[in-house]
Amino acid sequence: MKKLPLQAVLPAQFDTISDIAHQCPLTGGRAVFIARGLYRTNGDAYFDDDSLCMSTGARHLLRQQAPTLEQVFVQPNPASDQIRVSFRSGTDESAQVQIFDLAGRLVFEATGIPSDGVLDLNLSAVKTGMYICQVSTAGRRYAPVKLSIFH
Q1: Which contiguous run of DSSP H or E holds residue 144?
Q2: What's the pLDDT tens digit per position in 48-85?
Q3: What's the rounded Cα separation, in Å, for the pair 71 and 87?
């Protein structure tokens, strides 16, 4: 499996990604987790949310709301036209899959009821590039996944 180097991102873009990734997730929201996923493509990183949130006064909320993010698997990755998104889900629980470009713009969205925790998606309309795949259901939170698409 070929990894795309983060050097494909312009230095100014990487600086912005780094700034967002190093924010308190309670104040920066979903963008912080997406930025952390991008930031980690260049290696492992540790984010001390206690320290990051202390300055915002939201530290006490972090302990109460610390979500456990479940794993999502996307195959193949890199992909061309079709992907299979696998994750743990409840019976008859509708799931939403959103794909964002590196600027955080939504480029693809699909909703469906997974069969045995699997959704097969056609991404032929999505341009070649690097993306973040985010899965959500009513009852679970999932970690975002880096996705590369080549046509």
Answers
A1: none
A2: 777 777 766 655 544 554 456 788 899 998 999 999 99
A3: 6
